[in-house]
Design brief:
This protein is mainly alpha-helical. The chain is built from four helices and no strands.
């Protein structure tokens, strides 16, 4: 090999070593940049996730507060209605004969309504729910029977309420048959 060929081979080896070094440097820089992007992405994802959790907690608190406020408002409204019904029952009991058996029942019902209204005003929905939960834990059988009876009573009341307007708008059988009976006789 000539001196020129040796130099040219040496230069080409040096050139390829230099190219490998540059390629390695570029690869290292690309890896570092990719690692930086990944790190930034993870940080941003954590920040967004943390912000989403914070906002979800705030929304949850706001919803709970609105529900609590509305429940308290409804409880006070219910207490007012119970008081009004109790007063009407007291008036009914007072107008009954003194020795009438229903008088005591109606008076007892009015007292129960008044005390329930007082309890609702005093303890609110939260206290009432705690009391109900405590009773359900102490006496689950009685609670289930009471809940079933209350559900039945509410269902019957709702059904009667729905049927009442429909019945009041329809003419009674007697007035319809009476009008039909009067019609032919008047024509003769």
């Amino acid at each position: 090999m000539t001196d020129r060929e040796v130099r040219s081979t040496g230069q080409s080896e040096q050139g390829s070593d230099s190219a490998r070094q540059q390629e390695s440097a570029v690869t290292d820089e690309a890896k570092k940049a990719a690692g930086g992007v990944a790190h930034t992405t993870r940080d941003q994802a954590r920040t967004v996730g943390s912000e989403a959790q914070t906002q979800a907690r705030q929304v949850g608190r706001q919803v709970r507060e609105k529900v609590r406020t509305e429940a308290e408002s409804q409880a006070h409204r219910l207490a007012g209605n119970l008081r009004q019904w109790s007063e009407e029952l007291f008036a009914m009991a007072d107008s009954a004969k003194p020795d009438a058996a229903p008088r005591e029942f109606v008076s007892g019902l009015a007292n129960a309504g008044r005390s329930t209204a007082d309890y609702l005003d005093e303890h609110g929905v939260g206290g009432t729910m705690q009391e109900i939960q405590g009773y359900a834990r102490r006496r689950p059988g009685a609670f289930l029977v009471g809940a079933a009876l209350a559900g039945f009573a509410v269902g019957r009341t709702a059904k009667a309420t729905r049927e009442a307007p429909a019945q009041s708008s329809q003419p009674t059988q007697q007035s319809t048959s009476g009008a039909a009976a009067e019609g032919p006789s008047q024509g003769r």
